[in-house]
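Issue: ligand-bound run for cobalamin - logging full I/O for the record.

Environment: standard queue, default settings, no custom constraints.

Inputs:
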Amino acid sequence: MVVPDSGYIRIGDLSRRSGVSPELLRAWERRYGLFEPDRSPGRFRLYSDADVARVQAMQDHLARGLSAAQAARLVLAAPTREEPGLVLDAPLLELRESLLKFDEVGAHAALDRLLAVLTLEVFLRDAVLPLLREIGARWKRGETTIGQEHFASSVLRGRLLALGRSWGRGVGPLALLAAPPAEQHDLGLVVLGLGLHDRGWRVTFLGADTPIETIADTARRVSPDAIVLVALAPSRLKSVLPAIEAMAKEWRVYLSGEGASAGIAARVKAQYLNAGPMEAAGLLAETVR
Ligand code: B12
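Outputs:
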């Protein structure tokens, strides 16, 4: 039996901290044995920090499209992270909670803590990207409002762009990064830019919803070593294929994001960057020198 104020939490707190309803938490416990809570003297279930981490891991796997049963198998197979407040877990939970509560100051404090202990690569790969995907998955399930999603992505975007301040400075190869008309998702491009800058590249960032002639015009002005376009839906590339083909005759053009494919890239003689933004930074740095 456990003393209630010894760091253990009740199911309502676990639910509030994770954003998962108590009913679903009980279902995960019953069906998959995801937790084995201790009991308070009053027979209430008491959950530990390791349980909080398990819920978080479960959410990450679900956000990647796994079924609940598959996700639970992976979580149970992973070594338990018993220690609370491990480098990533506590500030990441704090960041997520702050963003969902529209608490900008709290979110920046959590980001400060993460940035103080993580390398840029780990920060982006293990904190920012999984969080964005989780927020997207929650929004799709109706658990997060559009306001929460917009707020979270704008706080994160601002912070990431601040990390990219002066990424145009230096002497390394230059990447021109843009999303074509109607494509609003540019966070992956920002992450790519940070990954490239970390590898000595310079970045000219045009971002979301850029007219295709503007991308070509900018390329003529800055002479990039690579142009990377991102699209999460194929339609946003298909409407501008002739212009991309013309650009690919003069520059090395890479197409990325879920809307790109090897087929589309081949049609316009561009390269298909079949990777997430962090891996893409490594690939580009390897191929373009
Ligand atoms: C933040 C966000 C927004 C923000 C974007 C802010 C910004 N400046 O980027 C706003 C609020 C504007 C937005 C709008 C919309 N969004 Co949105 N959004 C997201 C969210 C939460 C995060 C996106 C993100 O940056 N992820 C980080 C990227 C890097 O990870 P990823 O998405 O898993 O991408 C993979 C690949 O596509 C690839 N990749 C993606 N980008 C890049 C970039 C580079 C350079 C490279 C190399 C690779 C790469 O790498 C990843 C694999 O490792 C996602 C949820 C999610 N799953 O991510 C939804 C999501 C992308 N959005 C979605 C939708 C439906 C919309 C809207 C249509 C909603 C609406 N009805 O208005 C609009 C579309 C607007 C438009 N015309 O573009 C869907 C996309 C479905 C689809 N495939 O088309 C998602 C998946 C949500 C969901 N679960 O349904 N969104």
